[in-house]
Amino acid sequence: MQALTNRVKVVDRRPMSLMERMYLPAIFKGMLITFSHIFKKKPTINYPEQKRPFSPVFRGLQILNRDEEGRENCTACGLCAVACPAEAITMEAAERQPGEEHLYREEKYAAKYEINMLRCIFCGLCEEACPKDAIYMSETFTPADYQRKQFIYGKNDLLIPHPKEDPEAYKKALGNRAVNKA
Ligand code: SF4
Ligand code: SF4
């Protein structure tokens, strides 16, 4: 039979010798490899108690940002949705009403903002497209779930905690990435 590549190996079909049938050399060889790893530095870590430092370019779950007053930055301009190659972002715009100035920074805001995390490829283009510093990729993983519909993240899932009402949670959600970016 003609070989398609030069990587073909002929299978050794000789009957096993007595030593091979005892499997002892193979067992000792395996144990030797196991013992040789006992004194080596462990490559594993005890997650979630221990966490590896993130790379500066790591892109995790999206966060919808607020300004220092706690007002939502997003103006529902749609640029992030247009930039998204996975078509993962949908939104509905609404107009800010008198008395809502403490909630939304600009006259228009996203009444509905959704990201389909099953579509998202974490490319970061939404963050780059945003002219309002309203969305950024955090250092948080998307939590696992059992149902597909749980991966449609709404505004409440994405919005950063209020900096005045919950400063600790705000700081934690902000993480190093947003701080370095600012
Ligand atoms: S990270 Fe990329 S794929 Fe995910 S929502 Fe943003 S633009 Fe779309
Ligand atoms: S997140 Fe940014 S780009 Fe997307 S709609 Fe809001 S303001 Fe526009």
End-to-end Cα distance: 65 Å
Task: Determine the structural class based on helices, strands and strand pairing.
Answer: alpha+beta
- Give the overall shape: elongated
Number of helices: 6
How many β strands by DSSP? 5
**Rg of Cα set:** 27 Å
Describe it.
With 182 residues, the protein is an alpha+beta fold. The chain has a domain at 62-181: 2-Layer Sandwich (Alpha-Beta Plaits), CATH 3.30.70.3270. 27% of the residues lie in helices and 13% in strands. The strands form two sheets. A three-stranded antiparallel sheet has the order 2-3-5. Strands 1-4 form a two-stranded antiparallel sheet. The radius of gyration is 27 Å and the shape is elongated. The mean pLDDT is 90. Bound molecules: iron/sulfur cluster (2 copies).
What is the fold's blueprint, element by element?
Blueprint: H1 18-22, H2 24-38, E1 62-64, H3 79-83, E2 89-95, E3 108-116, H4 125-129, E4 135-137, E5 152-153, H5 155-158, H6 167-181
Antiparallel strand pairs: 1-4, 2-3, 3-5
The chain binds iron/sulfur cluster (2 copies).
Task: Report a brief summary of the structure.
This protein has 6 helices and 5 strands, in the order H-H-E-H-E-E-H-E-E-H-H. The protein has 182 residues and is of the alpha+beta class. The strands form 2 sheets. A 3-stranded antiparallel sheet has the order 2-3-5.
